[in-house]
Structure formats: C-alpha cells, structure tokens
Amino acid sequence: MEHTYDFDLAVIGSGPGGQKAAVQAAKLGKRVCVIDSKQMVGGVCVNTGTIPSKTLREAVLYLTGMQQRDMYGASYRVKNEITISDLLSRLQHVIGREIEVIRNQLLRNHIELMAGTASFLDPHTLSIDDESHGMMRTLTADKIVVATGTTPARPPSIEFDGVRVLDSDQILTLEKVPDSLVVVGAGVIGVEYASIFAALGTRVTLVEKRAQMLDFCDPEIVESLKFHLRDLSMSFRFGEEVQSVESSGHGTITTLASGKRIAAEVVMYSAGRQGNTGQLNLDLAGLEADKRGRLVVDEFYTTAVPNIYAVGDVIGFPALAATSMDQGRLAAAYAFGETANELHHLQPIGIYTIPEISYCGRSEVELTKDAVPFEVGISRYRELARGQIIGDSYGMLKLIVHSDTHEILGVHVFGTNATELVHIGQAVMGCGGTVDYLVNTVFNYPTLSEAYKVAALDVANKLRAVARITNQMLTSEPSLL
C-alpha cells in the first residue's frame, strides 16, 4: 500500500548538516521542510559554535595586532584596551548576515522553514511545537534526517552560574575580558578559546586529565602550538582532574585531584558535547541514543530505523561543520537512491587556535605503527618570502610521502592560513598525485603555497640521497654489503 506524506523529507535542525541535507533533497525535486527554533536558525554552528568562535578569533587577531608584532615589536596593538563590545559588535554582524544567507538559500530552493521544536510520534510523524502560531501541529514525512547538533556537556558536580563558571556556549556572554581564566578540557573547543583569550592578554591555565592535548594531531605540530601558547603566558596542567570549582563575587578557585588550587576570575568548562536528542521522544520512533545523546548510523547515515537518518555532531566524531555538511548531502542522496561518493580518508581537520592547525591524511605515528615506509619533507614559513612579508616566522608545513611509490600520505600545517593551505595537499592526494607533481609544478611567488614546493623538494632530496647511497652499496664489493 502506497502512503501519501506531507513531505518527502523532514529535517530536524538547520545547522550545516541539516541545511545541506535539505538543499540536496530539494535539488532532487523533493518536497522538503526544515524544523528549528526561531532563535537557532543556522544551528549551533552559526549561533554559539563555529561561526562565533572563528569570528571572535579574527577580531582578536586584528585588534591585538598579533600578526604584525614580528615587524613592529612585541608591544604593537591596534587598540590598547580591547573590550567585549569591540569583539561582540563584529560577532553580531557576522551572525546576522549568515542567518540571512541560510534563510535565503532555503527559500530559493523552495524549502519550508518551520519555527518550532520537533519530536517523534512514530517513525514517519513529527509533532511540532509551532513558535510562529503558538500551537501544536503534526506533519508526516517519507524520510527524516536528525541534525540536531550538540550542547556542552555539564558535569553534575560543577555548579554553572553563567557569570564565573561557564560552559563553552556561555563564554560569549562575558561582560568583560577576564584578567585570568581556567579552561577545563584541552579538546578542540577548549584549546581554541584558551588561545584566543591568551592572545587578548588573559592569564590562561589549561587543565586536562589526559597526558596530552589534541592527541589526534601530529605530535610535532602540537609541540609547536604548545611552545607558542607558553609564549603567550599560558600554563598547562596535564594529567590533572578537577575535583571542585568554587566561585564568589571575587573570583573562582579550581581545586585539582592532586591538591593544587588555581585562582582565576573565570572558569570555562569544555568537557565534551552532549547530543541534542533529549526532547525528540526517540523511543516513539524506535530509536535509542547513547549516554552522550548521540545516535549510531551505518555508512549510509541510516539509523536503526530505515527511513530515519542522522548527520553532524549528533553522530559523534569528527563533529566538524565541514564534515557535517558533506554528511547531510550524502544522507539525502542515499535516502532517495542517488549515487554519491564519500572520501572518508581525505577529510581535512581544521583547528582554529592561534596559530591555527590543519591536516589531512595520516600521521607519522600511525604510519610507523603500521610499518609503512615514509619520508618527511618540511618547509618553514621563515624560509618563504611570503612568510617574511606577513610576519609569520614560526609556521611550518609537513609532507609525509611513501618512500617507494612517492604517494602523499599526509599533509600537516601549522601557522597562518593553515586551514586554507591544507586543501592543496588534499586535492593532490584525492587525484592520486605524487610528490613529484609538487616538485615539478610552479607556484605563485611570493605565496605561502610555495611551502608545498619547498617541502616536496626536501622529500625528493632525501629520497635521492637514499637511492644514491643504496646504488653505491650495491655496486661495491659484496663483503661491504
């Protein structure tokens, strides 16, 4: 028996994953709606996550004059007293413009945007708490995509007051730039905000219960970041667990399990994220979330219920806006039988610290563990004319190349425009190119992209040296082998 539904696809959540799922389905000629709160158009990404933090970072880089200090001196600043108002004015402008872009994109693709909160009544039926009309309504859909994102996880032992003890969303509500800050959690969000406030002149202490931060990144790159964060007077407490946080009108005291006590004006907790699935009534759809509120999906982004898909942060790692966008596009394509390809192994990771980090492919640690023969080429920004021009003397680009096939196995970048530069290596890897292409091609001069040429030549010279000595050994007396 054939069913008639109100929509071919209903998307819960208007963040990057939800947007792209909706647009992809609309491009396939499907009837599509997107449901999200009126205050959250664009999702966490636009309102409290990716866009705000990256805009804040850009404002800090400009107002502090950090990128010019190599040339104009350590005391150089565009503005001496930087206020929260200086930072938030840029923030609100960007968020407002981005929301308009999203609304326009949905409108021109004939996607209905519903203001409200959705929950399941059954696998094909949603109840909508309609904010626009102050009433409840129901709708049916053939396929449903859950793209509800996440919120900061809050340990029950910590009392968040929104003034002295904050989560990573509330950090944007500060009334002034704090003189001192404790950041608990050295994941991507924690390290990004820690570096932003350290650049503003805040004395930052980063507390992490693991022995290292960003342990999925190349260790050499992480060490370079730590060096520069220490240069900004940041302190690190690795292998330390927070026992309690006490706050008053005078400040906060963070007590660690080891007995150490850290005084600071503000504490920001960045202890992971919790999936926004608590209000969905998943059980009525035949679904169940894990203890972090996340949904499990297969390689087609299908949940345990065949017509329900999930994408973005709500399905866990890598929980990035960029990967969420692609997941949404792919899920919609799979849902309606459209051919789609996914390059799992070539997803770039971008971390917007100061300085920023980005990589694509595998690391030296992974390749060594798997006994893959490789050679490494390094280019440092200080060797590049463009690096001197922009005042970045610390940036670097690392190429990891297979010793035998010359295939590029990984690209790791640290410094100015790292998140832009990584895509050159990603494109070469995706097209099956080798390091020989980078050796033989011509890059504009002076540019940071030239780092690829320098690193490729470094690899080529090392491989040539190995080949030359190996040939000499093979042609020498057998007794010398």
From TrEMBL:
Which parts of the sequence bind NAD(+)? 185-192, 208, 272
Residue ranges occupied by any FAD/NAD(P)-binding domain in the UniProt entry = 7-328
The molecular function terms of the Gene Ontology recorded here are: dihydrolipoyl dehydrogenase (NADH) activity; flavin adenine dinucleotide binding; NAD(P)+ transhydrogenase (Si-specific) activity
Query: How many and how are cofactors bound here?
Result: Binds 1 FAD per subunit.
Could you say which EC number(s) this protein's record lists? 1.6.1.1
Where does the Pyridine nucleotide-disulphide oxidoreductase dimerisation domain start and stop, copy by copy? 348-455
Where does the protein end up?
Cytoplasm
Provide the cofactor list for this protein.
FAD
The GO cellular component terms are: cytosol
Cross-referenced InterPro entries: Class-I_Pyr_Nuc-Dis_Oxidored, FAD/NAD-bd_sf, FAD/NAD-binding_dom, FAD/NAD-linked_Rdtase_dimer_sf, Pyr_nuc-diS_OxRdtase, Pyr_nucl-diS_OxRdtase_dimer
Main function: Conversion of NADPH, generated by peripheral catabolic pathways, to NADH, which can enter the respiratory chain for energy generation.
Family designation: Belongs to the class-I pyridine nucleotide-disulfide oxidoreductase family.
Q: What is this protein called?
A: NAD(P)(+) transhydrogenase (Si-specific)
Question: To which species is this protein native?
Answer: Microlunatus phosphovorus (strain ATCC 700054 / DSM 10555 / JCM 9379 / NBRC 101784 / NCIMB 13414 / VKM Ac-1990 / NM-1)
